[in-house]
Fold:
Amino acid sequence: MALHIYNSYSRKKELFKSITPGHAGMYVCGPTVSGESHLGHARPYITFDLVFRYLQWKGFKVRYVRNITDAGHFEEEGREAEDKVSKKALLEKLEPMELVQKYSNLFHWAMKKFNNIEPSIEPTATGHIVEQIEMIKKIIREGFAYEVNGSVYFDVKKYARHYDYGKLSGRVIDELMETTRELEGQEEKRDKADFALWKAAAPEHIMRWQSPWGVGFPGWHIECSAMATKYLGARFDIHGGGMDLLFPHHESEIAQSTICNHTAPVNYWMHNNMITINGKKMGKSYNNVIKLTELFSGNHPLLSQPFHPMAIRFFILQSHYRSTLDFSNDALAASDKAFRRLWEAYETLKKLPATAGAPADDEELDEKVKSWLDEFEEFVDDDFSTAKVLASMFEIVPIINSLKDGHISANAISGNTLLYMKNHFRVFLEDIFGLQAISNADDKLLNGLLNLLVQIRKTARGKKDFVLSDSIRDHLQKLGIQLKDEKSGEMSWTIGS
RNA sequence: GGUCCUUUGGCCGAGUGGCUAGGCAAAGCUCUGCAAAAGCUUCUACAGCGGUUCGAAUCCGCUAGGGACCUCCA
Structure:
């Protein structure tokens, strides 16, 4: 099976075929750096990191572009120009760029914690004002935009006469006009459905640029079109983002780019679903967000403990990206435990001896393991069904542990299958899923100290001095370090709650 | 109001018409000096009603609940 992707545009799973053989271009809507990222933001960036990693593993040379929105968009069209960035800047008495820098840094810090690979290009909106202006000029020349009082609007009605406006988001344009909310200052537009390409800036507006239409700032949708076109071309393979961006953002992107470049911009539209909390979308406007810093520190009334970024990554990979994922402390705690168990089994697997060519004593089991391993790729090929891969891995976990403990004979599984397991677990867990060890056991000092304690405890146990040995174990337990007596007489330890 | 989606065991979640996903929790057992960890076993669910079918969690209809978008939103 080859990679199939669910295309939001056709609403079908489609075989992935890149435009340029061996290469793939992917654009993902990035963060608006006017505030701190929350759990909801983690999902698209982890999801598309997986897509990025998988395409690379499949042999594609991928250019992954993820923008940073630092220009700030108006809160509400037509209202007094209060763009998100400048408004907050006044409140916090910061320069807009200072604010942007702060939250960009914080965002990158969180991405690193999640072990997300950096995009190939991370363009900023403010760095591409020129490109955006050029694009708007072109749309005007094509006759699909008009200027009013220093602002430029896209003529949706005219566009809809020639193209399929609303196809992506499943909207009917006539209904759109009916249902669009009453907003102030709409009289500038010829039609309610029109959207701004460029907005004239009020004098108090901090973020402002010179343009052919006067001083102003770009509309919300144009930055993505301009930057995607610049770095990926008029037509590229994959465009990703949250489902909440389908309309109007992505719908408008299609319209702008289509007029400007005379081609539909994207072959495969991918949209991740929302993370919910108590069944409701986690979002700024609902006032129910849990920030990433709060998750990592456990500093939030809804959280019983800090959660490691890898536990969160695992939590997200355990569901399908197009399903809503309901957050709760219990659900996350369950993922945390599950991930630790899986990872420990993986560490155990790495240490199991394997000799190529050694036969299997238990052919049936051997075959079963092989078929589970074979399925990993099929599952990811099927629109990134990571949850299924993890389920299969958990089928194998007891086998790994049994091999270690001797519940299953060491020769039950063939050497080749063992090598296959070792390789496949590494590839899927680390390379493709981007998971990594939760504890920093490579800390030399810590390692040394713990090994010393383990030695002392071993000696004590040898002398049946259980008071001392239990005391060592209990004290370490209180520090969050768990000692485990192995069947072989060895002791191992793990750090973590 | 319009458009679309969703409802799976105590909780989270995967599910391509026929083959008990998986995780967490819980209970019992094995191992252990005692624990922990690990292993084994148990818990067989698909909102309700009706239909199609030899067969439906999966397809269709109705009813009820929940949600998303239509406005900044990942």
Summary: Residues 277-432 of chain A form a domain with the Isoleucyl-tRNA Synthetase; Domain 1 fold (CATH 1.10.730). The longest helix of chain A spans residues 329-351. The radius of gyration of chain A is 27 Å. Confidence is low (pLDDT under 50) at residues 73-81, 179-184 of chain A.
